[in-house]
Amino acid sequence: MAATMEKVCVLGSGNWGSTAGKIVASNAARLDDVASEVNMWVFEEQVDGRKLTEIINEDHENPKYLPGVKLPENLVAVPDAAAAVSGATLLIFCLPHQFLPRLCASIKDAAAPGARAITLIKGFDVDDDGIVLLSEYITAQLGMPCAVLMGANIANEVAREEFSETTIGYHHEANGKLWCRLFQTKYFRVAIVPDPVAVELCGAIKNVVALGAGFCDGLKLGNNTKAAVIRIGLLEMRQFTQTFFNGAGELTTYFESCGLADLITTCYGGRNRKCAEAFVASGKSWDELEAELLGGQKLQGTLTTIEVIKAIDKAGARGNFPLFTAINAICFEGAAPSTLFDNLVHDDALVSRM
Ligand SMILES: NC(=O)C1=CN([C@@H]2O[C@H](COP(=O)(O)OP(=O)(O)OC[C@H]3O[C@@H](n4cnc5c(N)ncnc54)[C@H](O)[C@@H]3O)[C@@H](O)[C@H]2O)C=CC1
Ligand SMILES: O=C(CO)COP(=O)(O)O
Asked: Which residues of this protein are catalytic (predicted)?
């Protein structure tokens, strides 16, 4: 037995949370410095008349959020968050970002001393002082360093063990390497980069671009148009990071899985794309679409669009972000989907950026 045993807890058990639980539990079972049993905090609910935690622990499947995928038997569902975290040294945050504050409040002081965190959550908040990254929020609330993991990772595909890549952004190299060991598998290739801010913002903001891609599909436009939205979206993602984080973000980071690759997969296969397509076709509200199309899973791109535009407006910079501005106007200001392209032509500022 290794001198220091790490103990892992996954916080969240949705589509991606359950997949992350599957990956790390199967790795924990073979790593000799990590305790085999991995707790997964589950927001308790009834599924077909049974508690979801009971189903996961007895049937080793999450039929609501990740149906048809066998979960490892050493992944243990726990309904109480503080109990799930108790004694953990490695905390993996993976839940829809609107639920993070309540969770953090409920697990204060529950982790082991010296615990480290990683967030897989795609989103951020804006308060009176500006942008609050979720990794920063976790560090501020819980007093532990927090790395980030973002990538082209549609959960159902990763859970089926189809080869994909991801990117870990770290502040401390040793932590980056540790998280890499915990997440990497034959079908899940991990790259680690010392550029956590850009990695985290890529993961969050690509969900906004995905809405634009969905609008293209709803308008029945073709591949060239979607490719243009992806490319311009990538430029605005980089510009956003540089504008609000003092020029942060290495160009190379945008070529990691968290950058262009995640944009591509999300703009073709993600939930944000799907709901945005239906938004155009149906005229229904976002809440209705989320409830009708996602079976309890959560849409993150609309919430992130609100935060993105808040940050842009604080800086009086709508003119520098014509795509994000148009997506926000279509989502929330009653603009017609066809206005997506109205301000995209002759924008020299964007052309020169990358
Ligand atoms: N699903 C995917 O393909 C991917 C998702 N992500 C990101 O991972 C994060 C988590 O997403 P998913 O695991 O897919 O979640 P999900 O979209 O499947 O969300 C449902 C989860 O929210 C929980 N929940 C519902 N109400 C709650 C409440 N009041 N308090 C706490 N929890 C509540 C449910 O129990 C369930 O676990 C998001 O930020 C998402 O953007 C990142 C990569 C891939
Ligand atoms: O982040 C994702 C893939 O990397 C999933 O995106 P959606 O939330 O749009 O499904």
From this structure: 206
Give residue 24 CA to ligand 2 midpoint distance, Å. 20
For residue 289, the tally of other CB atoms under 10 A from its CB is: 20
Query: Is 132's pLDDT higher than 70?
Result: yes
- Nearest CA among 323, 310, 180, 303 for reference residue 238: 323
Alpha helices in the chain, H assignment, sequence order:
15-28, 52-59, 81-85, 100-107, 134-142, 155-159, 173-183, 196-218, 223-244, 262-269, 271-282, 286-293, 301-314, 322-332, 348-351
Ligand nearest to the CA of 77: 1
Measure 5 CA to ligand 2 centroid, in angstroms: 33
320 is in an annotated binding site: no
Is the pLDDT at 310 greater than 70? The verdict is: yes
For ligand 1, pick from 264, 294, 298 the residue to mutate: most ligand atoms within 8 Å of CB: 298
179 is in an annotated binding site: no
* 35 pLDDT above the threshold of 70: yes
Q: Tell the CATH topology of 198-351.
A: N-(1-d-carboxylethyl)-l-norvaline Dehydrogenase; domain 2 (1.10.1040)
**Domains of the chain by residue range:** 8-194, 198-351
Q: Are 66 and 155 in contact (CB under 8 A)?
A: yes
Give residue 345's pLDDT band: very low, low, confident or very high (50, 70, 90): confident
The ipTM, to two decimals, is 0.99
Tens of pLDDT along 165-195? 999 999 999 999 999 999 999 999 999 999 9
Find the ligand nearest to 46 CA: 1
pLDDT at 2: 52
CA of 11 to the centre of ligand 1 (A): 10
What mean pLDDT is predicted for residues 71-88?
98
Q: What CATH class does 8-194 carry? A: alpha beta
